[in-house]
Amino acid sequence: MYKSLEELCRIEKETKKPFWKIVQEDDCREQGISAEESFAQMQGMYEAMQYADAHYDENLKSASGLVGTEGKKMRDAREAGTLLCGDFIGKVMEKALKTSESNACMKRIVAAPTAGSCGVVPAVFLSLQEEKGFSREKMVEALYVAAGIGGVIASRAFLAGAAGGCQAEIGSASAMAAGGAAYLLGGDADAIANAAALALKNLLGLACDPVAGLVEVPCVKRNVMGAVNAMTSADMTMAGIFSRIPPDEVIDAMRSIGRSMHEDIRETGRGGLAGTPTGIEIRERMANLM
Q1: Where are the chain's structural domains?
Q2: What is the DSSP letter of 3?
Q3: Which residues of the chain have pLDDT under 50?
């Protein structure tokens, strides 16, 4: 696993291999498998993302009753043409809700990189494929790009909300999706790393404050924010707007911020939104039902 995006960018320049291929070769070395086996594994993950989206149950609610059916509401609003953000971003929002709601309802999803942030990457990738007509192979390549970014973040910082707050979950997922989107739009390694940096910068300091300790409120809606943030970061990058802080330094800043966070806003369900009067009331109501 690579420990810096700078290294991945350098290798792309020296070898002329695309970012995704460098990541795939590293995966092959780590698992001791062939390129074909590795690609099949990654394709299986992408197909699982597609399946979760296609088999969303618009009538299903989580056991707590806190989330569910909102993906349908977003779809209905998009189809009615009432969204300020327009049809495409509306589709991204819809898919983020659908996948993250499915997670809360105990359906099969892909943790990318975590279950709590599972809606971000598929929302961006599936929407882009539908909009632009990218091939299945191209989407799998983009998933390698996302995985490479996630691997560097895991190596330099963390991916778990308990370790670094929601910046480590939604922030990392948004960075992964942004980098993958930049690749799909024709960006090289520098563009991929920059898109990831812009996305992560926007979410630095984000608390992990699940109400009643459940990965539902505010987690589901934060997937929407992470997905849309990824799209804007990719667009800025492809327009030639670059981060003044190098990508690896952005990741290091996330690690530093995470270590500075009080434990109450690191997935304990005590601070932030979980500690509001309504959050406490929900927690107590959930406890009485058990």
Answers
A1: 5-289
A2: S
A3: none
